[in-house]
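Weekly structure sync, notes
Attendees: PL (lead), two postdocs, one rotation student
Agenda item 3: pending single-chain targets
PL asked that the sequence for the first pending target be pasted directly into the notes so everyone works from the same version. It is reproduced below exactly as submitted, 157 residues in total.
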Amino acid sequence: MSYLTLKSLHIFSLILLFGTGLGSAFYKYMADLSKNVHAIYVTNKHVVLADWLFTTPTVLIQPFTGYLMLQQFTIPVTTPWLLASIILYLIAGGCWLPVVFLQIKMRELSKQAAEQQTALTDKYFNYARQWFWLGVPAFIAMILIVLLMVLKPALWS
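Predicted structure, written out during the meeting:
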C-alpha cells in the first residue's frame, strides 16, 4: 500500500475517532443534564452503537496504518515524537476501555429506568461522572497526539 494511501487512511480514521468521541461525549453529557430518562436511554444506546461502528475500527486502524508507514521510512519507535505519541495513545486507550463498560452499564440502567418509568439512580450518575472524567485525559491525549503528528519536524529538528 502506498504511503499516501496509508497516510490518508490514518488521517481519516483519526478524524472519525476524534469526531465520534467528541460528538458522543457532547450528546451524552447534554442528555444527562436534561434528566429526561427516555432521551438519556436513547442517547446511551446510540453512544454504545457509535463506539462499535466507528471508534473500535479506528482504534485498530490507527496503529496498523501507523506501523505500516513507519516500515516504509524505517523510523525507530524510540524517535521522541513517535514514542510520546504511542504512550499518549496507550493512555487514551487505557481510559477508553473502562468507558466502554461504563457506557454499556449506563445504557442498561437507563433502559430499565425508561421501561419502568422511574428516575435514574445515583449509581447511574456515579458511572456518568466516572465516564466524563475518564474522557478528560483521553481527550487531552488525543489533542497532544495530533500536535505531535503535525509538529514533529519542528519539535525535534
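Discussion points:
- Residues 3-151 form one domain.
- The chain is about 90% helix and 0% strand.
Action: rotation student to compare against the earlier draft before next sync.
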